[in-house]
């Protein structure tokens, strides 16, 4: 294993780009191989068995690129498949649920934490179990917000329709006296300003994408796998792959990443 091998990052679509963006910011020397399963998004409405099959295929694909570690930049995949995949591969691997949950427990003052996520992540109960394993006295209130993913995928970040749906989804959480809210899907940080407006200034928003990048840095350091410093005047060497819709993915990625993607390749992920 070489320090200069890339880190594999994957998601059901474009949401994981929020994690990739934080990795680029926090670890500019690292190289990324990103896969977005845009042909099969969303994962949040699918069964655990189906998501596990998808994740196994993606991990097999990333392994062909000699990645030194894998980031499961998808809450649903982290909830449904991470523990199984950890037992099946020899690479260091990190999901997005535990880093965000740890931060939320540190941030809460009244021990009332909200979680918004896909149906699958909420139904898995992973956030609640992990939060309460840290502090059993914390009350966790989950709310599935399934329409947020397609709205983000369509680029409707500031649309009045998205604002109306956000107000409907978050109405019940606002009555629970939470002081901390986990954005429990990697698409949701792209709606951070809208969600913050709905919840008000008294609620701290936790972005698991940022916390996962910090966790990845610690994990790589623990395994002595941090990339050696390189010249920052050279263009970063990241690679992007999708299962469908490369042009649409590129347009979206270039709107949120700190540099322009020049090429995105389509992969037949069912072949892995």
Could you tell me the CATH topology label of the largest domain. Answer: Rossmann fold
The CATH C-level name of the largest domain is Alpha Beta
- Provide the succession of SSEs: EHEHEHEHEHHEHHEHEHEHE
The spatial strand order of the largest sheet comes to 4-3-1-2-9-10
| Helicity range | 40-55%
Structural class by helix and strand composition? alpha/beta
Number of strands: 10
What count of helical segments does DSSP give? 11
**Low-pLDDT residue spans:** none
Radius of gyration: 18 Å
Strand content: 15-25%
Number of domains: 2
Average pLDDT taken over every residue? 92
Distance between the termini: 22 Å
Largest sheet: 6 strands, parallel
CATH architecture of the largest domain: 3-Layer(aba) Sandwich
Shape: globular
How do you describe this structure in short?
43% of the residues lie in helices and 15% in strands. It is built from eleven helices and ten strands.
Describe this structure in words.
The chain is α/β, with parallel strands linked by helices. It has two domains: 7-95 and 210-271, Rossmann fold (3-Layer(aba) Sandwich); 97-208, Rossmann fold, CATH 3.40.50.1860. It contains eleven helices and ten strands. The protein has helices at residues 17-26, 48-63, 75-88, 97-107, 119-124, 126-134, 148-153, 160-170, 192-199, 208-222, 246-256, and strands at residues 7-11, 32-36, 69-72, 93-94, 112-117, 139-144, 180-183, 204-206, 239-242, 264-266. The strands form two sheets. It has a six-stranded parallel β-sheet, with helices on both faces. The chain has a four-stranded parallel β-sheet with strand order 6-5-7-8. Helix 11 (246-256) links the parallel strand 9 and strand 10. The radius of gyration is 18 Å and the shape is globular. It starts with 6 loop residues before the first strand and ends in a 6-residue tail after the last strand.
């Amino acid at each position: 294993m070489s320090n200069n091998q890339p880190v594999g990052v994957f998601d059901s679509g474009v949401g994981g780009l929020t994690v990739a963006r934080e990795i680029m910011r926090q670890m500019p020397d690292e190289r990324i191989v990103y896969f977005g399963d845009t042909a099969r998004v969303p994962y949040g409405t699918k069964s655990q068995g189906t998501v596990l099959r998808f994740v196994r295929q993606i991990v097999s694909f990333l392994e062909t690129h000699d990645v030194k570690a894998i980031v499961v930049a998808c809450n649903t995949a982290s909830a449904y498949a991470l523990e199984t995949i950890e037992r099946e591969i020899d690479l260091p691997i990190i999901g997005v649920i535990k880093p965000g949950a740890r931060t939320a427990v540190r941030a809460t003052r009244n021990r009332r934490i909200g979680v918004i996520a896909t149906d699958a992540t909420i139904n898995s109960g992973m956030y609640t179990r992990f939060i309460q394993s840290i502090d059993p006295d914390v009350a966790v209130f989950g709310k599935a917000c399934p329409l947020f993913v397609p709205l983000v995928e369509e680029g409707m970040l500031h649309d009045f329709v998205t604002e109306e749906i956000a107000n409907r989804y978050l109405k019940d959480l606002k009555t629970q006296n939470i002081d901390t809210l986990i954005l429990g899907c990697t698409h949701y940080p792209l709606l951070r300003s809208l969600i913050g407006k709905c919840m008000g200034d008294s609620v701290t928003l936790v972005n698991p994408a940022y916390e996962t990048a910090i966790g990845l840095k610690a994990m790589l350091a623990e395994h002595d796998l941090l990339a050696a410093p390189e010249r920052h005047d050279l263009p970063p060497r990241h690679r992007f792959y999708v299962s469908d819709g490369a042009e649409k993915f590129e347009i979206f990625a270039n709107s949120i990443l700190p540099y322009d993607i020049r090429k995105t390749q389509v992969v037949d992920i069912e072949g892995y």
